[in-house]
Design a protein that fits this description.
Helices cover about 20% and strands about 45% of the residues. It is α+β, with helices and mostly antiparallel strands. It has a single domain, classed as Immunoglobulin-like. Strands 4-5-3-2-7-10 form a six-stranded mixed beta sheet. The longest helix is centred in the first third of the chain and has 25 residues, at about 1-25.
Length: about 170
C-alpha cells in the first residue's frame, strides 16, 4: 500500500510540472531579434548583450543574456515573466520570449565586453539603434499586437575612437 502511495506521489509530481511548463509555454510569444554589427560582423563577437523588457509599470517581464558563448538557448519562468540565456546564431539572429497578455514593453539594451574574449581582441561596441517595424525603441515602447510579424533589429557599432564617451 505504501509503495502505491509513493508511486502515485511521484507520478503526480511529474505530471504537475509538465502541465505548468506547457501552460507557461502557451502564455509566451516568441519575438525574433536580429543583430547588426557595424562596420561588419567580426569572426568572434566579443560582447554580451543584455535585453530587459519591462511593462508599463516598470516591472521586468523578460530578461535575457545574449552571447556567442552561450551553449544553448534556455528560458525559465520568473515572477511575472521569463528569463534566459540565448545563443547568438551564426546569422546574427535569436528569439526572445515575451509574456502574452501585455502588448507594450520598454526595451533596455546593454552591451558589455566578455572579459575572456575582449582581452584578446580589445574591441568595444556601443548600441547605435534599436528598432521594430520602423519604430525607434530607444525612444518609444515596443508594441506587440496579437499578430506581430516583424522583428526587433539591434544595431551596434564598433568603437573606432577610444576617446568617445560611449566607448569608455
Amino acid at each position: 500500500m505504501k509503495l502505491a502511495i509513493v508511486i502515485a506521489t511521484l507520478l503526480s509530481g511529474a505530471i504537475v510540472p509538465a502541465r505548468l511548463h506547457s501552460q507557461r509555454a502557451s502564455q509566451t510569444k516568441e519575438i525574433p531579434v536580429r543583430l547588426i554589427v557595424e562596420p561588419s560582423y567580426p569572426p568572434v563577437f566579443s560582447q554580451e548583450i543584455t535585453l530587459t523588457f519591462t511593462d508599463a509599470s516598470g516591472t521586468t517581464v523578460a530578461d535575457a543574456l545574449v552571447s556567442e558563448t552561450v551553449r544553448a538557448t534556455n528560458f525559465r519562468p520568473i515572477r511575472g515573466g521569463m528569463s534566459g540565456e540565448i545563443r547568438l546564431q551564426k546569422d546574427q539572429t535569436f528569439p526572445v520570449l515575451l509574456p502574452v497578455g501585455r502588448s507594450e514593453f520598454r526595451l533596455i539594451v546593454r552591451i558589455r565586453p566578455q572579459p575572456s574574449v575582449t582581452s584578446a581582441t580589445g574591441e568595444r561596441y556601443v548600441v547605435k539603434s534599436v528598432q521594430a517595424n520602423g519604430v525607434n525603441l530607444l525612444e518609444k515602447l515596443l508594441t506587440i499586437p496579437t499578430t506581430f510579424t516583424g522583428e526587433v533589429v539591434i544595431t551596434v557599432a564598433k568603437c573606432l575612437d577610444s576617446k568617445q564617451v560611449e566607448c569608455k
